[in-house]
Design a protein that fits this description.
Blueprint: E1 15-19, E2 28-32, H1 48-52, E3 57-61, H2 69-84, E4 88-92, H3 102-112, E5 118-121, H4 123-130, H5 140-155, E6 162-169, E7 175-183, E8 188-190, E9 194-197, H6 204-218, H7 222-236
Parallel strand pairs: 3-4, 4-5, 5-6
Antiparallel strand pairs: 1-2, 6-7, 7-8, 7-9
Helix pairs in contact: 4-5, 6-7
């Protein structure tokens, strides 16, 4: 883990607070990011040419551009630089309604899509950020079809090499049915379905993302990749 490019600056570190849910009450997250070091990021703080030179992947999360106008601009600069240097870019919109509005998120994120090779999402993010509605699925099969519909619509928003989606049905805040899906604009690849009791949902999407990127770096086929990534995510849901 190379920490050489970390900058220490600003007056405070952003925090967030988790109020755990169970049964009929969902987990709630309160963000306290205003005035944090990252929110005050200024253009030119990071030398993206030096940071990305010789690298293979840049991963960006949609939470970062939500923090400030300067963060949004710097995300774009990083992604533009990556593509110019031949570095692959993956992006997860990670929409958080407590950080910015749907309209603002759509405006900023749409402008980042031309630089994205691999897009991570789910049906909920497709609806919140891009206005792609897939109905209100009530059965597992309907959730699968909603994810497929969302993937097809998302594929039309950019020239992506791959879309990676998670499928989730939550009968309660404590129990989930869960699967992963990859779409290369031609064919779907789906994992087996998992049913589990939640210990902690936070980080589940990150584990799925890490699993997909690991599979891409290893040169795995899509079936092996989606099974590995989904298994990693399912396990993370059982780790506090």
């Amino acid at each position: 883990m190379d920490t050489g490019f970390i900058r220490r600056d600003g007056n405070r570190i952003g925090t967030y607070f988790i109020e755990y849910g169970a049964s009929i009450r969902a987990t709630q997250v309160v963000y306290d990011r205003a005035g944090s070091a990252i929110a005050g990021l200024q253009p030119g703080t990071f030398d993206w040419e030096a940071i990305l030179s010789g690298k293979t992947w840049l991963h960006v999360t949609g939470i970062t551009p939500a923090l400030s106008e300067s963060c949004a601009a710097e995300c774009r600069t990083a992604m533009e630089t990556a593509r110019r240097l031949g570095v692959q870019v993956s992006f997860d919109p990670n929409y958080r309604r407590t950080l910015w509005s749907r309209e603002k998120a759509r405006s900023v994120i749409t402008g980042l899509l031309p630089f994205v090779n691999v897009l991570f999402a789910n049906a909920g993010a497709a609806a919140d950020v891009f206005g792609i509605r897939t109905g209100n699925p009530a059965t597992w099969e309907e959730h699968r079809e909603a994810a497929r519909s969302a993937a097809k619509a998302l594929a039309g928003l950019g020239n992506f090499d791959l879309l990676a989606l998670t499928i989730r049905d939550h009968p309660s805040a404590s129990q989930n049915d869960y699967a992963g899906m990859l779409f290369d604009a031609k064919e779907f690849f789906e994992s087996k379905k998992y049913h589990f009791e939640l210990v902690e949902r936070l980080g589940g999407g990150d584990a799925f993302t890490a699993g997909v990127l690991h599979g891409l770096c290893q040169g795995w086929d899509h079936n092996q990749m989606v099974e590995f990534a989904t298994a990693a995510s399912a396990l993370k849901h059982n780790i506090p």
